[in-house]
Amino acid sequence: MKVFLTVLLAATMANVAFAQEQSREIWSKKKAAKWYKQHAWQRGSNFIPSYAINQLEMWQAETFDTAVINRELGYAAGIGMNSMRVFLHHAAWEQDPAGFKQRIGTYLDISDRNGISTTFVLFDDCWNNTYATGKQPAPKTGIHNSGWLQDPGVRREVSPALTDTLERYVKDVLTSFGNDKRILLWDLYNEPGNSNYGDKSMDLLKQVFVWARQVPVTQPVSAGVWNKSLTDLNVFQLNNSDVITYHNYADEKEHQQTIDSLRKFGRPLICTEYMARTRGSLFQNIMPLLKKEKVAAYNWGLVSGKTNTIYAWDTPMKDGGEPAVWFHDIFRQDGKPYSTEEVTVIKSLTGAQ
């Protein structure tokens, strides 16, 4: 999941027609730059509490655990992190819209008390393509993200009526929280085209941008580029995002090339995924680069838990033992770091005591 983009901004008649469907146009580069300068350097993790195997287990009423969330966000605050990227799921909203939004509010209360802003993710093309509310499955031994859920997944192909539900979900959540200063950014769609969807994801990608811009949110909206081969998706994402978001799990040389390429678009840069130790993407080499380049930075994973993201994407461990080198994550559940050396580096960059 790495990106080095050479696509150039292309204004087309299709883009003009698309803009006319929206009530709010893309932010100007000047407005985006002004917004970015109003915030300290944002640095944090993609956050899923250790008790949750997926987004539903995090957000459903039966399993939403404020004590764990508060404790683990406290670990992040203790090393100077000030932002988290957090995935939502429309099925949790559909099951209980009022309760779901109440839990979002509770989460924001907790994160704000810990000095942490939030980037929320609405849709996702990664991992399991079906979902069911209620009790979630146990993790599969030694397998990375064995229970993570696409949203909406394959059901969008077999149930066209689902689109109406998704529109109501997006507009309800954005209307409820579109002026909440605790929210940094709306990440509308994680890795569109993943899981072999390719350009089949374009329709929903376009729809979610239309829906988001029909709500008067004050935060920027974006969808991150992540795969150089998805040219049409990349061009659309880069042409329609208020700020540029991207993923890169490569070493510092390739990551620098990605930053240099994306600078051509003249908008603030936010790296919404990095840090895969066995691929050379480390806190020691990437986080200093992102700080130097003034790129907001979200590594994957905070506390090791039911997502099993200490295991690599393509290297399962059938015995479920601890890998010699963790792929993602920073802390054990008791708050002890995987690597004290890494935590020292992070704290030196964030200014944490």
TrEMBL record:
- Glycoside hydrolase family 2 catalytic domain segment(s): 156-291
Which keywords, in A-to-Z order, does the entry hold?
Signal
Name of this chain's protein:
Glycoside hydrolase family 2 catalytic domain-containing protein
- Where does the secretion signal sit in this chain? 1-19
Biological process terms from the Gene Ontology for this record are: carbohydrate metabolic process
UniProt organism field: Chitinophaga pinensis (strain ATCC 43595 / DSM 2588 / LMG 13176 / NBRC 15968 / NCIMB 11800 / UQM 2034)
Q: Which InterPro entries match?
A: GH, Glyco_hydro_2_cat
| Molecular function GO terms recorded | hydrolase activity, hydrolyzing O-glycosyl compounds
Pfam families reported for this sequence: Glyco_hydro_2_C
SUPFAM superfamilies linked to this entry: (Trans)glycosidases
Gene3D superfamilies in UniProt: Glycosidases
